[in-house]
């Protein structure tokens, strides 16, 4: 073989020298993508398991600290009591329908932050829906949720121009003891809270959302950007559970995306917080999605199950596609 021939051969694409056709290259690319997906899922699950292990010689508290909680409760729950937000005795002293209470709940949060409502989201849901969600959440207490981000020519890979990127958030449920049974009379501050005083109310729960990259770096020490609290105090008297979302204030000049600068001092915009809260229902309220279409409900269940039970089959692209369709 002459030197010219050797030079010509060396300049050929690597795929031609190896005799690979386009289909084989695509197959290799798919396999590489699947391998990276498996590694990413395994890395997240390893971080989760590591964060749940208590330090040596120490016993992890059954009541983890959550932003916005009150240390003055008589019981051991770390959650700020509903009575610190609403005047529950006064509310129960006169007849109110569940719809009226939901309206009051919304109006209260809309009046926060100087009447702008920034930093808070709220909702109410039937107790049956809440019980259905926590039954799933206790089996699958963590997940990941994508939020769409507009990328620019400066941030898009390989100069491909603007497009849609996604930021992933780590979702984690925590469960706490049921609240004391509400009463139309003011509670006696000297009366101890007994185990039977909750009147078999459902457990209070919280859902923490943390940027996935930050969680992978800091695990349980990562700062949650959004904390959802489900209050079950009125679940027996009015059949509803009240949801309160608190967006963590930022210490820097800006935290939310520039195009949503109205969020100001908070790590998340109101819109992103709403999208994350909606994802809780989408992935944990099984059967709800089937009212609008069997495929959506079954896909949510499949993705959540795969993430926990068959991480090698979990597809990040399927998660993005499903979230884009149902957003």
From TrEMBL:
Any GO BP annotation: mitochondrial proton-transporting ATP synthase complex assembly
Q: Which GO terms describe its cellular component?
A: mitochondrion
Question: Where is the sequence biased in composition, kind Polar residues?
Answer: 1-10
User: Which region ranges are annotated with the description Disordered?
Assistant: 1-81
> Which keywords does UniProt give here?
Mitochondrion, Transit peptide
Q: Where is the composition biased (Basic and acidic residues)?
A: 16-41, 50-63
* InterPro entries listed in its UniProt record: ATP11
State the source organism's domain of life: Eukaryota
Compartments annotated for it: namely: Mitochondrion
The keyword Mitochondrion appears for this protein: yes
Q: Write out the similarity annotation.
A: Belongs to the ATP11 family.
Q: Which PANTHER family match?
A: ATP SYNTHASE MITOCHONDRIAL F1 COMPLEX ASSEMBLY FACTOR 1, CHAPERONE ATP11
UniProt name for this protein:
Unplaced genomic scaffold PAXINscaffold_409, whole genome shotgun sequence
This protein's species is Paxillus involutus ATCC 200175
